[in-house]
Design goal:
The structure holds two protein chains of two kinds.
Chain A: E1 25-29, E2 37-43, E3 46-57, E4 71-78, H1 94-110, E5 119-129, H2 134-148, E6 158-165, E7 168-171, H3 175-179, E8 184-190, E9 195-202, E10 205-206, H4 210-243
Parallel strand pairs in A: 4-5
Antiparallel strand pairs in A: 1-2, 2-3, 3-5, 6-7, 6-8, 8-9
Helix pairs in contact in A: 1-2
Chain B: H1 8-19, E1 35-39, E2 45-50, E3 53-64, E4 75-82, H2 96-112, E5 122-124, E6 128-140, H3 145-159, E7 161-162, E8 165-168, E9 171-174, E10 183-184, E11 192-199, E12 204-207, H4 211-216, E13 219-225, E14 230-237, H5 244-278, H6 284-287, H7 308-318, E15 329-333, E16 336-339, H8 363-375, E17 389-391, E18 410-412, H9 419-443
Parallel strand pairs in B: 4-6, 17-18
Antiparallel strand pairs in B: 1-2, 2-3, 3-6, 5-6, 7-10, 8-9, 11-12, 11-13, 13-14, 15-16
Helix pairs in contact in B: 2-3, 8-9
Classes of the chains: A alpha+beta, B alpha+beta.
Chain lengths: ~240, ~450
């Protein structure tokens, strides 16, 4: 993409943000009445929906039940209209499978699964519009949905993506910045302890810049945490008002 | 076939060993196993052995029409297969999670890092491009499939030669291998995956885990780097919680390891090139050593046995003979003796008539006397001790029949009396045979 500079001389990105600025995040909890927990999040133009069922008895093969903890089952899917070109994605797609595995890994680390032995927690995530940062939006939506379902977690799981252009680390990449082919890092963080539940990076980045990018992504994840925290408190306040306390 | 579960004691043993910074095969924490790279007769075929993990890589190419949104770029296709010969647990239907994870990681490591110049694979823009297919097969699973597979993939790609093509106007001429020499692919850099296994919630870290260590690990962190210290891929898996400084430390270790491995790869490639140019023999059949046709070979560990005799004599000279008094043996009939009374049988009324069985209840005493025997330097010196000596049926031993009553007897145990006797005598025989060998050396 010749001529498209991701970071201008004044330090502005393609959509007018600064290097460490996040896109506008709006989230809503309890969007579905039927599911145990649900949430909807918009990160800029990326829209993701997450639904949680559980903890409930093991469906399907009883033999897969773990005797000391709950099994977390995650499914990721992208709507056909989510990208610029309408693209039908088969269900057993490798990329979707991989995302499902990564989400499972993230939430198995965060949810207190020891409290629910021999049961199953299902997390379904659907991307309605993909404009970069798909994994991050899914994780954030799923965190809110799990909280909405009342399942105890160690901490919020906040995720954000980061990139590196011209010696500066950019936080929260949009689709244009991702498609440019530079290095992209996605991480999921538990803010209180600073532990990384998942770390994933693509494309070439020199080792010396790794720390800078990690810092940028961690800081962005902490900013996301502040926002999600506010959303949860708002939701609880509204629910309490409705209950008439 | 379902994977055989790992027993608790083996798991505990492995974790304890790791806590004490010991690995089963004697490696250090950051050591890699031996890497052997061998090439086949065709270009683009190689086998990489990382310890016992073996991966076969094969590259092939084909002229196809390009993807619609990338009309000027060639297509790269990677496929890793876990064949059932690698491990019985790799059944065709059962491996989906692991397979997806490995394949995606390889794809991201090799494709997204742009190690191959895909623009050079274009023949006619929009119509014909080269599709390069890398097929990897796992032949033996002994841990750390990712590292071996990534090395195999990049080595196969470096080794591969595609047929030469020339374009004149609308005509594309594909030259056969005999007409024009095949052309190597243009490779920018060589990304190599390095795996780090974490144990005990991230307290301990090992590089290049083998199959046992992988079973007990908490999670894995894979960092793919090239020799210019550029990180191509990072992937954490398995639900471990990492800290930022752990990741940075791992990337530094990875940098060192990648430099070593890249050097090894270059050497292997150059070797092969030289052998082919000089007209020597090459191919898999040549690179497999003669002794290991179908079996794994263990290296002999040298043991120094020069001073065994002296040491044994020292030990025996310093050992004090036991001074416990044992009751005198009572000879019932020739060949049947009883020493002591034995423990009261606790079987109750049922077994009352078997109490009188000679020798049957004396397992303990008999075995003790065996031990005592081997500590004696000379049998004759201790005639005055009341240490009855018991012989096996082996013909190697001298049978000395002493007078009953005063001197200790060497009597043969008849192995027919009771099961217990047989068991004890068998135990005694086995123990004695072992110590007989030592005793034999002494008696000479």
């Amino acid at each position: 993409m010749a001529g498209l500079e991701l970071l201008s001389d004044q330090g502005y990105r393609v959509d007018g943000r600064r290097a460490g600025e996040l896109r506008k995040i709006q989230a809503r909890m309890g969007v579905f009445a039927q599911a145990d927990g649900s949430a909807y999040i918009e990160q800029g133009n990326t829209k993701a929906l997450a639904v949680v069922y559980g903890p409930h008895e093991m469906r399907g093969s009883r033999s897969r039940a773990l005797p000391d903890r709950a099994l977390v089952n995650c499914q990721y899917s992208m709507a056909t209209f989510s990208t610029g070109e309408r693209k039908r994605r088969p269900h057993g797609d490798r990329k979707a499978c991989e995302m499902g595995l990564q989400l499972r890994q993230t939430f198995e680390a965060a949810i207190l699964t020891q409290l629910y032995p021999r049961s199953q927690i299902d997390i379904y995530v659907q991307v309605l519009q993909a404009d970069g940062g798909n994994y991050a939006a899914c994780v954030n939506a799923a965190t809110l949905a799990v909280l909405d379902a009342g399942i105890p977690m160690r901490d919020f799981v906040c995720a954000c993506s980061a990139g590196f252009v011209d010696g500066t680390a950019l936080a929260d990449l949009s689709h244009v910045e991702e498609a440019a082919g530079g290095p992209q890092l996605a991480l999921a963080l538990l803010p209180a302890s600073g532990q990384l539940a998942l770390l994933e990076m693509d494309a070439r980045l020199h080792e010396d810049h790794l720390q800078q990018v990690l810092e940028a992504a961690s800081q962005a994840a902490r900013d996301v945490h502040a926002l999600l925290d506010r959303v949860v408190r708002q939701h609880v306040r509204e629910a309490a008002l409705l209950l008439g306390d | 076939m379902k994977e055989t579960p790992l027993s608790n004691c083996e798991r505990r043993f492995l974790l304890r060993a790791i806590e004490e910074k010991k690995r089963l095969d004697g490696r250090q924490t950051y050591d890699y196993r031996n890497i052997k790279i061998s090439f086949g007769t065709d270009y683009g075929c190689c086998i990489v052995e990382l310890g016992k993990t073996r991966v076969l890589g094969q590259v092939s190419c084909e002229l196809v029409s390009p993807k619609l949104n990338r009309a000027t770029e060639g297509i790269l296709f990677f496929n890793l297969e876990l064949s059932q010969m690698a491990a019985p647990a790799f059944e065709p239907g059962r491996q989906s999670d692991l397979l997806v994870k490995l394949n995606r990681l390889l794809e991201r490591c090799l494709r997204n890092s742009k190690c191959i110049d895909t623009e050079s694979l274009c023949v006619v823009a929009g119509e014909k491009v080269w599709q390069i297919r890398v097929d990897l097969h796992l032949l033996n699973h002994d841990g750390n499939i990712i590292d071996a597979a990534s090395i195999a993939a990049i080595v196969a790609l470096c080794h591969f030669r595609r047929p030469d093509v020339s374009v004149q106007g609308d005509e594309i001429t594909l030259y056969a291998l005999e007409e024009r020499d095949p052309v190597p692919l243009s490779i920018h850099h060589m990304p190599i995956c390095i795996s780090f296994a974490f144990f005990q919630q991230g307290t301990y870290l090992l590089v290049d885990p083998n199959e046992r260590e992988e079973r007990v690990m908490d999670g894995l962190l894979v960092i793919a780097m090239n020799k210019h210290r550029e990180i191509c891929t990072i992937q954490s898996s398995g639900g471990i919680m990492l800290l930022q400084d752990q990741v940075l430390r791992c990337s530094k270790i990875a940098g060192v390891k990648v430099a070593e491995i890249t050097e090894l790869i270059q050497k292997a490639l150059e070797n092969d090139k030289r052998v082919r140019k000089e007209g020597g023999k090459f191919g898999f059949a040549e690179s497999i050593a003669n002794q290991r046709i179908t079996a794994f070979k263990m290296e002999k560990a040298p043991v120094d046995t020069s001073d065994v005799e002296e040491k044994a004599e020292e030990i025996i000279a310093e050992a004090d003979p036991p001074s416990e008094a044992v009751s005198k043996p009572v000879l019932w009939t020739p060949g049947t003796a009883q020493i002591g009374e034995g423990i009261e049988s606790s079987w109750g009324d049922l077994e009352e008539e078997e109490d009188e069985d000679e020798g049957g209840s004396d397992d303990v005493t008999i075995l003790d006397s065996v031990k005592m025997e081997t500590e004696d330097q000379n049998v004759g010196d201790h005639i005055t001790d009341d240490t009855p000596i018991v012989l096996s049926d082996s013909e190697e031993d001298e049978i000395i029949i002493l007078e009953p009553g005063e001197n200790p007897k060497k009597t043969r145990i008849q192995a027919n009396n009771s099961k217990q006797e047989k068991a004890s005598s068998k135990k005694a025989i086995r123990k004695k045979k072992k110590k007989k060998k030592a005793a034999k050396i002494l008696l000479f």
